[in-house]
Design goal:
It holds the Pfam family polyprenyl_synt. This is Family 2 encapsulin nanocompartment cargo protein polyprenyl transferase. GO terms for molecular function: transferase activity. InterPro entries: Isoprenoid_synthase_dom_sf (IPR008949), Polyprenyl_synt (IPR000092), Polyprenyl_synt_CS (IPR033749). It contains 16 helices and two strands. Strands 1-2 form a two-stranded antiparallel ribbon. The chain has a single domain, classed as Farnesyl Diphosphate Synthase. By secondary structure, the chain is mostly helical. Helix 8 crosses helix 9. The relative contact order is 0.16. It is globular.
């Protein structure tokens, strides 16, 4: 696993320095330690095992749900998940890391053991279906042309079919919960539906912010938008795992808060990678957010820093990108403190996430799977 791009610090402003059960439930195995021998979250390779186990448990439910769709929408969905090529022939593509279903299963295991985890597979699949509904729609709205190292669904099948496939995935997700005989399914369905509304609110705010000038966007409102777009579903995933484990209401809310804070840390690092990441690892063109003049978190932190570089960046962002070298824009964001601020904020959000998790699951060993996943999503290399 690569080194973290975050560093713990107390500074926070821009410019600061910086479905069979698997052999083990998706939580830290008894006595597990970090790579350095100390207590705490497992290292990167162990987190990858947790994700692989989650994918193995959830994939059959996902495939069954997608295969029940009408042919046209099924074709788009199967392509989007990486199971088929555009011509309908089988593919062994990348269906994503399964972070959200892994959080559902890890939370259920932490509070209810293997039996609760096994019972939460439908809920985990529902969360993954909702996540992919948002991806299909976001790609259309953002006009992103690449996802998971290949053309996005809308570029292959058109806007209409991609949107309708996303709509169908959302409906199937809620149907999975509605048909689930588990006692927690009704509460889970209501919570997931409320989360979808929040996701839509976050996306609407995001698109509205993009229509405003570079000097008209505040950092606080962008953080609120990012929590709704990214943190809400990670929080919901953790909360659903708690519901399926029969956890107390206070513990479910603490799990939701843990997921939201970890999700915001995830978004901060994702935005950093969107500017400084390696396309061979990210599957997206380098600097795509800057070319689109997107007001990502590092960019807004830079724009609001009050530095000379902020004024330079604002001037660059005031002009539509028409090709050419993005390096001056990248350097302006960095000199204005956007990169350092995002890394510091990601570290602080993770610290808050750990506090919330300890409220719901005081035993670090029991919380190991969730800790590992939270560490994993913020330990990605640029």
């Amino acid at each position: 696993m690569t080194e973290s791009v975050t560093e713990t610090t107390t500074q926070s402003g821009p410019g600061a320095t910086a479905p069979a059960l698997p052999a083990q439930p998706l939580a830290t195995p008894s006595g597990a330690t970090r790579a350095d021998g100390g207590p705490g979250p497992l290292d990167g390779p162990e987190a990858a095992v947790i994700l692989e186990q989650a994918r193995a448990m959830v994939d059959p439910e996902l495939r069954s749900a997608v295969d029940a769709l009408p042919r046209a929408m099924r074709r788009v969905a199967r392509y989007h998940f990486g199971w088929e090529h555009a011509d309908g022939t089988p593919a062994a593509g990348n269906a994503g890391k399964a972070i959200r279903p892994a959080l559902v299963l890890a939370a259920a295991a932490a509070l209810g053991g293997p039996r609760a985890q096994a019972g939460a597979v439908r809920a985990a699949a529902a969360v993954e279906l909702v996540h992919n509904f948002t991806l299909l729609h976001d790609d259309v709205m953002d006009r992103d042309t690449t996802r998971r190292h290949r053309p996005t669904a809308w570029t292959v099948f058109g806007d209409t079919d991609a949107i309708l496939a996303g709509d169908a995935l959302q409906a199937v997700a809620l149907r999975l919960l509605a048909e689930d005989p588990h006692p927690a399914s009704a509460a889970a369905a209501a919570r997931l539906a409320a989360c979808v509304v929040e996701l839509c609110e976050g996306q609407q705010a995001d698109t509205a912010l993009e229509r405003r000038g570079p000097s008209e966007v505040g950092l606080d409102e962008v953080l609120v938008m990012a929590e709704a777009k990214t943190g809400a579903l990670l929080g919901c995933a953790c909360a659903l795992g708690g519901l399926y484990a029969g956890a107390a209401a206070a513990d479910v809310e603490a799990l939701d808060a843990f997921g939201r804070e970890a999700g915001l840390a995830f978004q901060l690092i994702d935005d950093v990678i969107g500017i400084w990441g390696d396309p061979s690892r990210t599957g997206k063109p380098a600097g795509a957010d800057l070319a689109a003049r997107k007001k990502s978190l590092p960019v807004v932190a830079a724009l609001t820093s009050g530095t000379p570089a902020a004024a330079e960046l604002a001037a660059l962002y005031a002009v539509p990108y028409e090709g050419g070298d993005l390096e001056p824009t990248v350097l302006a964001v960095e000199r204005a403190g956007g990169r350092d601020w995002a890394q510091v904020q990601a570290s602080e959000r993770m610290a808050r996430a750990m506090q919330e998790l300890s409220r719901a699951i005081p035993d670090p060993e029991a919380a190991g799977g969730l800790l590992s996943l939270a560490e994993f999503v913020t330990r990605r290399s640029t």
